[in-house]
Amino acid sequence: MSRKWSLSSTACALFVVLVFAGCHKPVSYPEIIAAPHPLTDTLPAQHRILGKSIENRLIECLTLGYGRDVTFILAAIHGNEPAGTPLLRHLAEYLPRHPQLLAGRTVVLLPVANPDGMARNSRDNARGVDLNRNFATANRLDNKNSGTAPLSEPEARAIESVIWKYKPNRIVSIHQPLACIDYDGPGLILAIRMAQYCDLPIKKLGAKPGSLGSYAGLELGIPIITFELLPGDTALSAERLWRQYGKALIAVIVYPDAVK
Length: 260
What we know:
This protein is of the alpha/beta class. It has a single domain (about 10-255), classed as 3-Layer(aba) Sandwich (Aminopeptidase). Helix content is about 30%, strand content about 15%. The protein has a seven-stranded mixed sheet, with helices on both faces. Strand 1 and strand 2 form a beta hairpin. Helix 3 packs across helix 8 and helix 6 packs across helix 8 (about 240-255). Mean pLDDT is about 85; it is low at about 1-45.
């Protein structure tokens, strides 16, 4: 894929509305796809279509920077936990304005990991599968809600494809509503660093069967944070979310350096 920003008008428009649509009220998938946000030709980003959901919605990620130190941040793996999407929109706008943060680094953003769930305001995908129980782990359970087989769902396969393509040094999955910083695998030090820049406490919730935390943290040994925002954060604007959590995300990206 070319390193230059070159998108067809159709792909660009769809990417813009999925990733960069702002919100000043509770976000929903229809609102995201209805409000385009302009891009500039100088945005140092790569757009990649990872696949399609059960209901044929595109699953897309944005990559900023080209360095070897890689951070992968995703949101809305549970469709009824949408606050992370506008937060990542703000992060995607912030990083190009502060290119020093990308020196030697790559940041991969997946703002809507479960587009069908977001459209339905549902935790699960369109087949009723909890995507955060669908990964290939030693502790997973094969059942209707977890999927009858590991990676049975295209959305989970899309997430896995990012991990194998970019080989991230650390991962953050943004959730709601448990209001804490959870971690799996060797993620404790990263959780401590994030907690220095936001008001959420560190709380070890335990590796759930078939979860992304179990897969990345326990199976692959990648430090992974489950960043549980507050239930009321859904109603906040992107700017307000950024004021509360932006520095914590920057702390992950520049780790082990301190946020300046």
